[in-house]
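Cross-check.
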Amino acid sequence: MPRPSPTLRVAAAAAVVVAFAALPSVAWRLQAPRTLEVVVVDKTVPFHNYREHAAVPWLLHAMKIQNAAGRFLDAARDYVGFDPLGKKGRDLTADDLAHADVLVLADTYGVYTGDYARPGEQAALERSPKIYGGLVDDEAHAIEDFAARGGMVIGEFNAFASPTEDRARARLEALFGVRWTKWVARYWPNLQDENEVPRWIGRLYQRAAGAALDARGGGLVFVREDADIVVLRDDEDLRGHIVTQERTPAGAVFGFPERGSFYYWMDLVEATGSEVLYEHVVDATPAGERKLAAHGLRRRFPALTRRWDAWYFAGDFVDSAMDLGEPERAWLMPYRRARAGCGGAGAEEASFWGWYAPIAARLLSSRAR
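Predicted model, tokenized:
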């Protein structure tokens, strides 16, 4: 029997490679679609990248979850909040939630005149007049009613902080079973980076501490509205892990990942009637712990809580500027999670794929039909 020619052998090998590469897409298309009505609220959309909520439609698409009309959510169209084209906002109403299964409060901070003061699509670093933002009492009331009739509510930073109204904040705190302490925190690897670190950080430190901030190196900065500030410095006050999200025994029941490594914007909340599923744990030295204690702060505070089917992520976890890739590929999320777990990803990727995406996907999938 004659042996195949080299040309035929190369062609056969190429066909195998092509078939293998196409397998994830073929497998995804063979999956049966599921249905879920999801309403997304994002009031922080100054630009067309939709980065504060785009990961939610992506996750739904990757899991092949469509709305009742049989289509996938579009990050540029399927949300309630600020329209960067018309440059105006629209509040959430009871009608928006009439047929919903899940409400995702992705971001309510808002849009400000300073967002359009810098070249390119760069969000403001300085305080400036509000164009649109914050939750109002009517919206909070509609969310309460939605939750009372069995809807799932997923919220995250910043649902409570300025410019949300006091009455709306109180309603949401009761819904989620948490109390916002008025503190927020974020780590910057370089406190001198004028493209990332707001100048008001230095001004607040000068006013509160009576001395100029030494901006050399990195630091984890805690801010209590405009009244107080704590800066934990690399090496001196912080060890290498900075902040991690550690699963509690209550979180283990759900089979969620053991830990995360997120240290972008976080809000410090206290559980008042909710289960704490994860805690933010600051990797502080004894000197850092003393700094925190002097301001009434601890190195552990809730990162994810649950009260009935109201879930609160105490951090800006969904915010992502990453290219998430093509959602129509089976096994993509498990692969990204495995890669993050074995050290094959950067800090943002590891946090998103290794911690946030598995949890958010589990919650959304639990309501799909």
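Residues 27-367 form a domain with the Rossmann fold fold (CATH 3.40.50.880). Residues 12-20 have pLDDT under 50 and may be disordered. Passed to J.P. for a second look.
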